[in-house]
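Quick illustration, no need to memorize.
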Amino acid sequence: EEGLKQKVRSIADNAVLEGYEIKNVKDLDKTVLLKYTFHAPQYFVRAGPVRIMDQLESINTSAVFKEARHYPIESPGLDFQEERIEVELPTHLAVKYLPPPVEVDTKWFYFINKYEVLDKRLLRFYFASKTKEKVVSVKDYPEFKKVIEEIASSVNQHVVLEETLSHRR
């Protein structure tokens, strides 16, 4: 529970965990599912007449800060992470800009990051990352570095919301 409280606080400074549910913890043949809800008043950043939503996910670029490497990059294992986040929009706000999806499939990993609007009031974010190779060789490092930096640049966008006409003053 403490970890989830920290997670929702990382999404929004004033977030309050409302509830959570964990499934399939004891069955190693099934994917562990974690579902939680939280409330975050004043979550959107004001920018004049629009509101900006923080990024819901980013890509870690710490492994590619060097121009060249003398040793390969090694992952501890083949990993798969998936997140679905749904944000219920207040009735007075509508989506003005939605970042385009980012999907990259390489020999080292698969990555997807996308937003979509469901029924005008529900914003859904989907993220998945799958490690396909545990090792990035020194020879492959420049190409790997380029791909990671391109993804980081592509996902560095924000959802922009605006007040609906009926609520503008």
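The mean pLDDT is 89.
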